[in-house]
TrEMBL record:
One Gene Ontology molecular-function label: hydrolase activity
Keywords for this protein: Hydrolase
Pfam families given in the database record: Hydrolase
Organism expressing this protein natively: Ktedonospora formicarum
InterPro entries: ACAD10-like, HAD-like_sf, HAD-SF_hydro_IA, HAD_sf, PGP-like_dom2
Protein's UniProt keywords contain Protein biosynthesis: no
Upper lineage: Bacteria, Bacillati, Chloroflexota, Ktedonobacteria, Ktedonobacterales
Protein name: Hydrolase
């Protein structure tokens, strides 16, 4: 069956997001032990990734659990978003755009409340693809096979008609188990070559 659609992840794919070390800096500033931020905020990170809370809820929890005042919370969130958004992977974004109209394109991303607005403002992902599935908007996240089923449903295609690119091995493993052609990102050149081979370009 011919490939009809190519789906990209965002973080580490369309966005280059190297660690900035903001968490460790804030732990040192607040005199917390290493790893304390995630221990105190793990449930709120999960809730935000599945849309079970608002961004205001996240900010309130950060303030209360870390003992921050409002200016500190705003500074912390600024650092968080700086790492989260990274910078555009221009080469791969240009390649992704070039696939249309010969192929349908979509984006599938584990995400966090507030991501769509910020990514749209910076990178205009909606102009690159037919639609975007964010985990925080649908209440599902990779590697849950239901999010791959939802992607294929929205495309109106069978899994074997779809290619999915991600840098997370578990997501690729799950996509392949569902029947999608998974490409595990290592470098731009490698990813483009593997996708082109599947498309027989």
């Amino acid at each position: 069956m011919a490939i009809k659609a190519v789906v990209f992840d965002i973080g580490g794919i369309l966005e280059l997001t190297p660690p900035t070390g903001y968490g460790a800096r804030w732990e040192a500033k607040l005199e917390h032990e290493p790893g304390e931020l995630n221990r105190r905020l793990g449930d709120i990170w999960q809730a935000g990734s599945l849309g079970h809370c608002t961004l205001a809820d996240v900010e309130q929890a950060i303030g209360e659990r870390l003992g921050m005042d409002r200016p500190q919370v705003e500074a912390f969130m600024g650092d968080l978003w700086k790492e989260y958004l990274g910078e555009l992977n221009v080469e791969l974004a240009d390649y992704f755009r070039s696939l249309r109209p010969s192929y349908r394109t979509a984006i599938l991303s584990n995400s966090f409340v507030g991501a769509r607005e910020r990514e749209e403002e910076l990178y205009h992902f909606s102009e690159m693809s037919e639609f975007i599935i964010y985990s925080h908007e649908v209440g599902l996240e990779k590697p849950d096979e239901r999010i791959f089923a939802l992607t294929c449903e929205r495309l109106g295609l069978a899994p074997e008609e779809v290619i999915f690119l991600d840098d997370w091995g578990e997501a690729i493993k799950a996509a392949k188990a569902f029947g999608i052609h998974g490409v595990h990102f290592q470098t731009n050149a490698q990813a483009i070559a593997e996708i082109n081979a599947l498309l027989e370009i």
